[in-house]
Design goal:
The structure is a single chain. This protein is about 0% helix and about 30% strand. It folds into two domains: about 15-135 and about 265-295, no CATH class; about 140-260, no CATH class. The chain contains no helices and 14 strands. With about 300 residues, the protein is an all-beta fold. This is Thrombospondin type 3 repeat-containing protein.
Amino acid sequence: MRPLFFILFSLSILSFYTCDDGDVITVDFDYDETFQVCGTDGLVFYKTKNDPSESLSIRITELDSIGEILVVDSLTNTYEADFALSATNVFNYRTYSNTTLPTSGLFCSDVPLSSVKIIKDIESTSGNVHIKTVLTEDDNDGIPAELEDINGNGDLTDDDTDGDGIPNYLDEDDDGDNVLTKNESPDPNGDGDLSDALNTDGDDDPNYLDDDDDGDGILTRDEENQSPDQNPGNDISLDGIADYLNPAVATKTQATKYRQHTIYQTYVVTLTVSNFDLQIISLDVFDFGVLDDSDLSTSRKITPPFN
């Protein structure tokens, strides 16, 4: 069996292929490591390049929309599926007479682009396509997720300092004081060492894990004496210092709810093709790359129940 390896896209890999009509095609596999997707009735995964103008594309008729490959398992945050290449699920290599290919409309267009002329269209109708999606969620609070394992057991899901049901690595406000963690200077110099985190009252807990930052006996979230808007940072009664950081101000205004939290999501979709018969690529497994789509970076919002 031939060794299993992947194309390194930063290298220019030349392949020579003789067509049935006797023509010899020189293929320069200097493609980007990313690919695009389009379609609503069957998806087309594709990548293009210029000089020379070429494309690689894979159509999967079993998929109706990109949303289907973003539905991940709730436990593993992963989607994986295999699809067989066939007469309808085709892996294509095409060359074009155009000097520069259009940035859109080359695939999935209702009406073929009249300005695009295909010279060669080589296809594989046998083989396997493997699609994998991995969802990563984070709170973007300035603390790497691995440093939010407070109990040190390797499980990020059971660290919930404020008991609001959101683990710290997804919680924008780890201590539930309605001051965002990123605004409580958990890592002032950004070196990944949290030992210098801001600690206004000098107790055992830095501000981002302390629900009474100034140690005056009034919970930070209850020190909204000017504007009760789930943001103690804009309540200043004395000396130009926010009340929740000023032990000289100990006036309580009972909080009634937590602020809304944002959890940031990033989907990474990869695609590989194996056991195909596209003669211009003499590999056992072809790494098609990583999907480039702005919709893969999104977020979800949640307001924890107040306690």
